[in-house]
Amino acid sequence: FTSTRDIISMALVTKDAIIPASAPTQLLMDLHSGFISKYGDDPDEYEYAMSEFLRMNGMYWGVAAMDLMGKLENMEKDKIIAFLVSCQDSSGGFRPVEGHDPHLLNTLSAIQVAVMFDCLDSIDTEAVVKYVVDRQQEDGSFTGDEWGEVDNRFCFCAVATLALLDRLEAVDTDKTAQFVHSCINFDGGFGSRPGAESHAGLIYTCLGTLAITQNLHLVDQDRLAWWLAERQLPSGGLNGRPEKLPDVCYSWWVLASLAILGRIHWVDKDKLITFILACQDSETGGFADRPGDLPDPFHTLFGVAGLSLLGDTTVKEVNPVFCMPQYVLDRVGVTHQVLE
Predict the structure, then answer these.
(1) How would you label 111-142 residue by residue, b for 16+ Cβ within 10 Å and e otherwise?
(2) pLDDT score of 204 more than 80
């Protein structure tokens, strides 16, 4: 015999992570610095070959994480700059590595690294602007590359790249904002395109686009913030959409979105900090998606950046839109809109 209460309980089972009693409770800064500085050193490793298409993004994750931790001097600046130069395509866009096609995802990462290292004079920035301008479509959206896929991630990459280059006027930002607005769902969230499911990662990119273009008035502030706050699970971690497991990367996508909306206080900060710290690997360094999983640079950046948003003063202040140290944005004079 199954009672009504049992049936309801089964229907409402929450997927969540378990935090071991032995999980770290302090930020293991030195371990993370070593993890990032050594990551991907061996080109003969299987992981090195299989992650080739992520090489430029990985460079950004590593450099940004090291800068936030105050360890940027441990990175091989000259080698990284040479890598950036080698990856710029004749179209102006950046490839993940030589031999691949250029894409807006890689182009933003390359510009972020160049701005953090203050080496924009080493690349052809006018060609970058042209590459981005050529990606804009009639409805204001952007394709990621010449093959035509449209996604809100690419809108964000486009306007963020141009903002960092102080060339935002090169595209029609009003049209882009209207395209993003057309993607709002009944729950206040955004998907990749009109009609697509709300997802925390896409919400972050849409809010970032609207913040950079000064169009956050188009957002239903509290409805969206409520959806984002509901992403917190009993473990303290955040998921990207209903019925999914928590993941450290959403400690960035969700938390940064709430920061842009002026609603970061709508989540339990202490429980989230506990979850993020528990995702550290106390042997190798680095953060994983959940406690006990393998660490990687992607989750390491967003773990450190999330802790910065939560007020950890052992790391530098992070900008919630660009996911770069705030002092870097101040140095180049880049600003954006936020709500209160």
Answers:
(1) bbbbbbbebbeebebeebbebbbebbeeebbb
(2) yes
Question: Is 285:33 a contact under the CB 8 Å cutoff?
Answer: yes
pLDDT exceeds 70 at position 5: no
Has residue 51 got a pLDDT over 80?
Answer: no
In the block, tokens 């509290």 appear at 222
Q: What is the pTM of this model?
A: 0.94
Residue type, 213: T
Q: Is 16 left (phi over 0), alpha (psi -120 to 50) or beta?
A: beta
What pLDDT sits at residue 1? 47
SS (HEC) of the chain: CCCHHHHHHHHCCCCCCCCCCCCCCCCCHHHHHHHHHHCCCCCCCHHHHHCHHHHHHHHHHHHHHHHHCCCHHHCCHHHHHHHHHHHECCCCCECCCCCCCCCHHHHHHHHHHHHHCCCHHHCCHHHHHHHHHHHECCCCCEECCCCCCECHHHHHHHHHHHHHCCCHHHCCHHHHHHHHHCCECCCCCECCCCCCCCCHHHHHHHHHHHHHCCCHHHCCHHHHHHHHHCCECCCCCECCCCCCCCCCCHHHHHHHHHHHHCCHHHCCHHHHHHHHHHCECCCCCCECCCCCCCCEHHHHHHHHHHHHHCCCCCCCCECCCCCCEHHHHHHHCCCCCCCC
**Can you give the pLDDT at residue 265?**
97
Q: Which residues of 166-186 are buried (b: 16+ CB within 10 A; e: fewer)?
A: ebbeebebebbbebbbebbbe
Give the chain's radius of gyration (CA, Å): 20
Question: Does 6 score more than 60 pLDDT?
Answer: no
Q: What is the pLDDT of residues 280-322, one digit of tens each?
A: 999 999 999 999 999 999 999 999 999 999 999 999 999 999 9
Task: Write down the pLDDT at residue 13.
Answer: 66
Q: How confident is the model at residue 52 (pLDDT cuts 50, 70, 90)?
A: confident
The number of angstroms, rounded, from the C-alpha of 200 to the middle of its chain's C-alpha atoms is 11
